[in-house]
């Protein structure tokens, strides 16, 4: 069993590595793997990987894979995303696991705002679907923007739905100031935007 | 002339390596020794590294000596071949690079080891690093729900 021998050797060598070297290795891993797998190895790894310092170092050190936006077909405006993976010789194109989207808008801090109320981080390739609106807006025809509030360390989405002239504000989950644990603020608020619209109408 | 000066390194098993001072200076550990004591023709012991590993490390240092005639592309191919080695060799190399403090070499090997984790399951990773899973099922579910990390 040649394979087992290699694995055994691999384990023996790596289990002896000092902690700061393991830290360097983790830093090189793609963010998606860290998020889905390596974070849940044990609690100390979870703390390390979730710390703001690690995350910013990882963003610089890991090799990002490109995302390319491709039009689905000639007759639609819908676009899909394709991932470029580097291989031994050349590269490989993979379908990015996301429904076709209409438009990708830049938000802030490099985050992008995708159709149907999803926010995408193109570097780590995480997608966060926003909570369902209290207005039950189908998200087909709407205006929205993503912004960052540094005082509260929160990302906010303002969503204007034109059927009823209302707006909603969402707070996206993000780490607290110290980077210890995460607070999931996903509040929705309704507020009238009627006055602004009324003024526009009067100007005519 | 700093570039023509030679430095002698002695590995843990007693082998002597006579190299250019500029090559040795890529190791910060040796740089400190040279700056502090400035030994003339003295032998610098490297007690943590054996001859086989040291020669490999020095091979890297010689290659990476800033040379205006070699372009960047040249390095990446050479680096790739350099780390295409047995796991034990990589382990020895990274420990030597850590001891001698050569950050780019540590970086290179970490890259290589990280690439070996592609497609490994969490259980396998725990086995490799000899780590016990101290998450309970509920805790893991709870942590997985939190999506904060995506947005930093």
UniProtKB/TrEMBL annotation, chain A:
Residues 11-58 form the F-box domain. Signal peptide: none annotated. It comes from the Eukaryota. SUPFAM superfamilies: F-box domain (SSF81383). Gene3D superfamilies: 1.20.1280.50. InterPro entries: F-box-like_dom_sf (IPR036047), F-box_dom (IPR001810). Pfam families: F-box. This is F-box domain-containing protein. It comes from Vitis rotundifolia (Muscadine grape).
TrEMBL record, chain B:
Pathway: Protein modification; protein ubiquitination. One of its GO terms (biological process) is protein ubiquitination. Residues 5-64 form the SKP1 component POZ domain. Pfam families: Skp1 (PF01466), Skp1_POZ (PF03931). Gene3D superfamilies: Potassium Channel Kv1.1, Chain A. SMART domains: Skp1. CDD domains: BTB_POZ_SKP1 (cd18322). Keywords: Ubl conjugation pathway. Residues 104-150 form the SKP1 component dimerisation domain. Involved in ubiquitination and subsequent proteasomal degradation of target proteins. Together with CUL1, RBX1 and a F-box protein, it forms a SCF E3 ubiquitin ligase complex. The functional specificity of this complex depends on the type of F-box protein. In the SCF complex, it serves as an adapter that links the F-box protein to CUL1. Belongs to the SKP1 family. Part of a SCF (SKP1-cullin-F-box) protein ligase complex. This is SKP1-like protein. It comes from Vitis rotundifolia.
């Amino acid at each position: 069993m040649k394979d087992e021998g290699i694995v055994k050797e691999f384990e023996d060598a790596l289990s002896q590595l000092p902690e700061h070297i393991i830290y360097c290795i983790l830093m090189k891993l793609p963010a998606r793997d860290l998020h889905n797998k390596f974070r849940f190895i044990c609690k100390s790894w979870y703390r390390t990987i979730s710390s703001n310092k690690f995350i910013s170092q990882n963003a610089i050190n890991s090799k990002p894979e490109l995302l390319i936006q491709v039009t689905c077909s000639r007759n639609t405006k819908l676009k899909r995303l394709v991932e470029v993976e580097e291989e031994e010789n050349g590269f490989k194109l993979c379908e990015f696991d996301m429904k076709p989207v209409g438009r990708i808008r830049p938000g802030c801090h490099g985050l992008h705002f995708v159709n149907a109320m999803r926010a995408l981080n193109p570097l780590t390739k995480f997608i966060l679907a926003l909570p369902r609106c209290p207005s039950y807006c189908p998200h087909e025809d709407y205006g929205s923007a993503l912004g960052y509030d540094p005082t509260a360390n929160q990302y906010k989405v303002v969503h204007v739905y034109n059927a009823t002239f209302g707006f909603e504000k969402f707070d996206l989950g993000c780490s607290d100031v110290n980077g210890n644990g995460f607070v999931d603020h996903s509040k929705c608020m309704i507020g009238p935007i009627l006055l602004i619209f009324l003024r526009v109408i009067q100007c005519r | 002339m700093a570039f023509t000066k030679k430095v002698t390194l002695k590995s843990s098993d007693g082998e002597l390596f006579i190299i250019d001072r500029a090559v040795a200076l890529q190791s910060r550990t040796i740089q400190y020794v040279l700056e502090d004591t400035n030994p003339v023709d003295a032998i610098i012991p490297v007690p943590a590294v054996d001859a086989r590993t040291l020669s490999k490390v020095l091979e890297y240092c010689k290659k990476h000596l800033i040379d205006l005639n070699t372009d960047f592309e040249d390095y990446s191919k050479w680096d790739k071949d350099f780390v295409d080695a047995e796991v034990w060799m990589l382990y020895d190399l990274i420990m030597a690079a850590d001891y001698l403090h050569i950050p780019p070499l540590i970086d290179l090997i970490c890259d290589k080891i990280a690439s070996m984790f592609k497609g490994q399951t969490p259980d396998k990773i725990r086995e490799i690093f000899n780590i016990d899973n101290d998450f309970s099922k509920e805790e893991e579910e709870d942590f997985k729900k939190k999506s904060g990390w995506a947005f930093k």
